[in-house]
Design brief:
The structure is a homodimer of 399-residue chains.
Chain A lengths: L29 H14 L7 H14 L3 E5 L2 H11 L5 E5 L5 H8 L3 E5 L10 H7 L4 E7 L8 H10 L3 E5 L7 E2 L2 E2 L6 E5 L12 E5 L2 H10 L21 H31 L6 E3 L13 E5 L1 H4 L3 H10 L30 H9 E4 L7 H16 L1 H11 L1
Parallel strand pairs in A: 2-3, 2-4, 4-5, 5-8
Antiparallel strand pairs in A: 1-9, 6-7, 8-9, 10-11, 11-12
Helix pairs in contact in A: 1-8, 2-8, 3-4, 3-7, 8-12
Chain lengths: 399, 399
């Protein structure tokens, strides 16, 4: 294991020969994929709501415990067509501390995201924070279950009801996660999941909208396609957000493996927690006991005063070791185009968001990360933080 | 071969046991797909601009003879991100006689489609028709190369230049088709292709934007993804329109086979033309000699007065025989939501479009249609039209 002077920033060889990534990258057994693809070839049915997509819609609805699951190409398109299906017009309250797609999906629908700060403990919206942003122009709240932690669903449901607002959730982080023991997916008017390769359920690309609302489901099924036979409702606009049979094949096979992948994630998460427990200035975000998380994300918080290094400095040193930890999220959605230069957002103050954007980093977890890799990453982080003074001087010299 | 009284509408058994479809549905050899997917598994790189997508971008640019090809999830998203990349705002002149995605893609970008009639011979926009629609609010022209026939590119280029308008083309029908001997793809500011399974190049889903404009290409590459490393330009908005490695694998293998598939299409097209040559009231749309077409579409025009039956009646009888010929396009884009009920389109008169919407039908062609199938379809059509009087009475009884 490396000593301080062996770090790549001091001229040593990188700890990892190949980049170690943050994404999940779980894949089914090759034999399963081969069989599924032979079936697609025999049927010559590649897309347009084929049998695998229909099977996935049923299987994912059952997995989540919801009436309707509507598969789509990816989570971003899911958010876009959900906003369109609800015919929301005007302002939607969203967190800025999220993947940029959350707010930009709204902008594609001509909606105005109203950025709300998040709670420093949960990293999520709270009803209290949202309430302060409600005006006469507000039409909806879009919560994000960040790191798979349910975004105050009970409080937000009451609030939405009190103000007659739509309530939707970006559940892209939350496959298999629970709220009060029930799997996330049936909250608010609808929720949107991602089956991107970096998620615990891998459709390569892919996503799904879940809802208990029959009318909304019919509208979503119509909007996602221009296929004439897929017209179940009159909708304002349609799009091609069809999931292909190939994506569905991956997702169907992956769905059965979710509990196994979550368990593997959890073991590595626990390993990170125990190995990094005593480092000053570093803490790993914890998940509520009594709920299930998918442990997709190992989120480290770097407090610069105590750690002696900023998050960005730690990231720089780790990248040089080929540990491709990620600054999630940096910058906040409000500091990116198209909102950054929009006068409507001038002077917007989101202190917790800005702080988290400076302090959080994601450590590698998922299929490509072994128990040994975690040990090596933890050793690197320990070496870096215990030698923070020297590391900082070195980085300043190199700047 | 069937006699009149054996038609399904008279109680006979359908001519085809399984539905005969219009789509192309060409697929690569299984061995090629198996090898490609084994590679994807080994690399564990499923999406996010992997090696196959990069290879496809290069190969398709070369195939088309253009500087840049930017692969996307599908043609609709291609049109959406192209309009966004050009920062068009205001009115765009488009034909209503096209797949509904053409105009609805513009609506997703907050643009106003201005529907223009088409020429009765070419089924395409003409510069003369477009010129009448130009106002001070016009910002762009979007031509459609319908049935793979170049949409007056020289005249429209002059017109766009004269009025300082953007000129883009929906080339979703036009893979491998030529204009003045050069493959379509480098016309106007950019062109958008579809690799849907029903096209001669099958990526299951998929599409591509082609352009010779370096700056535009950088903007398109940025818009299509939220991936931080894919930021080549400052853009107003991003989306997830990434092509997956699986889609790229299909498209790459298919690209090499395009000439072979086109040749097979052409043979069946010729067969339709010769077998249906002498039927009164039916004519097959012809393609310009001296240009290459991909013969994806066998377009029949039914003149009801001479044929003794309307197009819709012919379609109904053929559907009962399991010949799933398609009414392309019906209705016109201007008669569908969201434009149908929009006051701005009230009183819009597009006489040629409305006529074509009542008269054209597509006959089956592609991988799943054999030479014998074409003979049987032609025999059915001949039986129907020569017995038009009896068929019409029967349909009226059953109505």
């Amino acid at each position: 294991m490396k000593r301080l002077n062996d770090l790549a920033i001091f001229g040593g060889r990188p700890e990892f020969h190949e980049p170690l990534h943050v994404g999940q990258l779980y894949l089914p057994e090759w034999s399963g994929i081969e069989a599924a693809f032979r079936g697609i070839f025999e049927r010559q049915w590649y897309t347009n709501h084929g049998p695998l997509v229909r099977q996935l819609d049923i299987a994912f609805a059952k997995f989540v415990g919801v009436k309707h699951a509507v598969s789509v190409t990816n989570g971003t398109l899911g958010l876009m067509i959900l906003a369109r299906a609800l015919e929301i017009q005007g302002e939607v309250i969203v967190p800025a501390f999220t993947f940029p797609a959350t707010a930009q999906a709204l902008a594609w629908g001509g909606l105005t995201p109203v950025f709300c700060d998040v709670d420093s403990k949960t990293h999520n919206l709270s009803a209290e924070l949202v309430r302060r942003k409600i005006t006469s122009r507000t039409r909806a709240i879009m919560g994000v279950h960040l790191w798979g932690r349910a975004c105050a669903p009970d409080d937000l449901t009451s609030l939405a009801k009190a103000f007659s607002l739509r309530l939707i959730f970006d559940a892209c982080h939350a496959i298999g996660c629970t709220h009060q023991g029930r799997r996330i997916g049936g909250l608010g008017d609808a929720e949107v999941f991602s089956f991107h390769a970096t998620k615990v359920l891998n459709g390569t690309e892919g996503g799904c909208i879940t809802t208990n609302d029959d009318i909304l489901a019919a509208r979503l099924r119509t909007i996602r396609s221009f296929h004439p036979s897929e017209e179940f409702a009159v909708v304002p606009l349609r799009i091609n957000a069809k999931m292909s049979e190939a994506q569905a094949a991956f997702a169907l096979l992956g769905l059965a493996d979710v509990p196994r992948h979550v368990e593997a994630n959890r073991r590595r998460y626990d390993q990170y927690c125990s190995r990094l427990a005593d480092l000053p200035g570093l803490s790993i975000t914890s998940y509520a006991t009594g709920e299930t998380n998918n442990f997709q994300y190992v989120v480290a918080d770097i407090a610069p005063a105590q750690a002696g290094l900023t998050r960005d400095q730690v990231v720089e040193v780790l990248h040089r070791e080929n540990v491709f930890c990620r600054r999630h999220f940096h910058p906040g959605a409000h500091r990116m185009p198209p909102f950054r230069n929009d006068d409507r957002y001038a002077g917007l103050s989101l202190p917790v968001t800005d702080l988290l954007c400076q302090r959080l980093l994601l450590l590698p977890n998922g299929a490509t990360v072994s128990v040994e890799d975690v040990d090596r990453v933890c050793h690197l982080v320990t070496t870096i933080l215990t030698g923070a003074e020297s590391v900082r001087r070195r980085l300043e010299q190199q700047a």
